[in-house]
Amino acid sequence: MKGHSTEAAVIKALKEKHGDCDYISGEDLAAQSSISRAAIWKHVKSLRQKGYEIEATPRRGYRLLSSPDALLAEELFPLLATTTFGRTIVYKDTIDSTNRYAKELAEKGAEEGTVVIANEQRRGKGRLDRRWVSPPGGIWLSIILRPAIPLQEASKFTLLAAVAAARAIETAGLNPEIKWPNDILIGGKKVCGILLEISAQSDRIDYLVIGLGINANNDLDTIPIDSREHATTLAAALGKKIDRRSLVATLLLELENRSKTLLAGGWQEILDEWMKRCRMFGRHIILRMLHGEVEGEFVGVDQSGAIRIQLPGGEIKSFAAGDVSVKKQRLT
Ligand code: BT5
After folding, report:
1. Which residues belong to any copy of the BPL/LPL catalytic domain (predicted)?
2. CATH no. for residue 305?
3. Percent of the residues in the chain that have a pLDDT greater than 90, as a whole number
4. What is the DSSP letter of 231?
5. 218 and 85 housed in the same domain
6. Which residue has the higher pLDDT, 33 or 190?
7. Using 50, 70 and 90 to split pLDDT, how confident is the model at 4?
8. Does residue 313 sit in the same domain as residue 228?
9. Quick check: is 313 in a domain?
10. pLDDT category, 140, cuts 50, 70, 90?
11. Helix axis angle, 267-276 relative to 244-263, nearest 10°?
12. Residue 309 — φ and ψ, nearest 5°?
């Protein structure tokens, strides 16, 4: 990752001069990163391949003309206020699935906080082997965590991620709501989905991969028609393109902060934040599970994050997994 951090430093220095339309000499860049001028030239060539337009003029040095609209590590590092989350970023223009790749990296020992981001996924994964459509322009991101908590508490990270994503989306001036367990909606339409994958040995968590898919600046038309009517993007909700870089930086900070809160025993605080953003209370819902379905009134979630439903007979039951449809009319 050394190359990444040098390139991030080079971009940072070029950007500082960018406002004044000024050049920075190869000598100064080399001195700042403690490497040779030839090495700087190599990094400049690699940055150009990533989409940066960098002018090189003899005697004057280098000048940044434009940056790519991509979630590159070089673009994200200057915005990140985290200590561990996103300190290693693997960016892929196209990938099968960021969750799949993050799991591969985790198996090889990747550190907590390692993030995989793609501009496009060819085989984005939803829950239960469903497809997650991931055209260019969205935010398709997975993060590796290694929390020291018992396995049965791992699902708390789905709710934690939903709170973090909702908060990040709020900073963009939008008003998202959370639908149990893992959907973020705007105006009743899905803008973000979360997929938590767990690797554990007996009761010990080896690693978690939290995958977040956020429809940001991607074209809605590329989402298949049956999903499209239930989907929206941040750009559609805002009426203009969103700066994906600052959204990702905010998201990673929110994830890190909430994760610290959880590990410090602050689960109730996260649950309260989750409930505040959930507008399902009192609604008549149907919960579809692998084997059968139940209907009733949504009355909240329990301490483990399982959904609590009041059945028509009055009994309240908890269910750990399933898909919820909210019915239009309230139960009488
Ligand atoms: C989810 O599954 O909502 C979890 C999605 C997680 C995607 C992220 S992207 C980064 C990381 N890498 C991956 O490979 N995955 C994660 P679920 O609740 O099962 O919802 C899937 C359903 O949402 C599909 O069956 C469609 O109906 C619908 N859908 C598919 N693509 C969509 C999109 N882009 N926007 C809105 N809805 C979509």
Report:
1. 74-263
2. 2.30.30.100
3. 78
4. B
5. yes
6. 190
7. low
8. no
9. yes
10. very high
11. 140
12. -125, 130
Q: Which amino acid is at 309?
A: I
Identity of the amino acid at 89: I
Question: Which residue's CA is the closest to the ligand 1 atom numbered 27?
Answer: 227
CATH code at 270? 3.30.930.10
pLDDT, tens digit (0-9, with 9 covering 90-100), for 249-294: 999 999 999 999 999 999 999 999 999 999 899 999 999 998 899 9
140 lines ligand 1 (CB under 6 A): yes
Q: How many domains does the chain have?
A: 3
190 assigned ligand-binding residue: yes
Is pLDDT above 90 for 223? no
Q: How much distance in Å is there from the Cα of 307 to the middle of ligand 1? A: 20
Tokens of 29: 């860049």
Q: Which pLDDT belongs to residue 327?
A: 84
- Are 199 and 153 members of one domain? yes
> What CA dihedral angle connects 258, 259, 261 and 265, to 10 degrees?
140
Q: Provide the pLDDT for residue 43.
A: 94
Domain membership of residue 132 (yes or no) is yes
Whether residue 92 contacts residue 99, with contact meaning beta carbons closer than 8 Å, is answered with no
**Residue 1, domain member (yes or no):** no
| Ligand 1 neighbourhood includes 193 CB (under 6 angstroms) | yes
Instruction: Give residue 16's pLDDT.
Output: 86
**Nearest CA among 330, 331, 308 for reference residue 319:** 308
Is residue 306 in contact with ligand 1, taking CB distance under 6 Å? Answer: no
Residue 166: Cβ within 10 Å count = 25
d(CA 96, CA 217): 20
Average pLDDT over residues 70-94: 93
Q: Is residue 102 part of a domain?
A: yes
Q: What is the pLDDT of residue 3?
A: 56
Same domain for 248 and 108 = yes
What's the gap between Cα 280 and its chain centre? 24
Q: How much is the pLDDT for 180?
A: 94
Q: What's the CA-to-centroid distance between 230 and ligand 1, angstroms?
A: 12
1-4: long-range contacts at Cβ-Cβ below 8 A with a sequence spacing of 24 or more? 1/88, 3/43, 3/46, 4/73, 4/74, 4/77, 4/89
Range of the domain at 324: 283-330
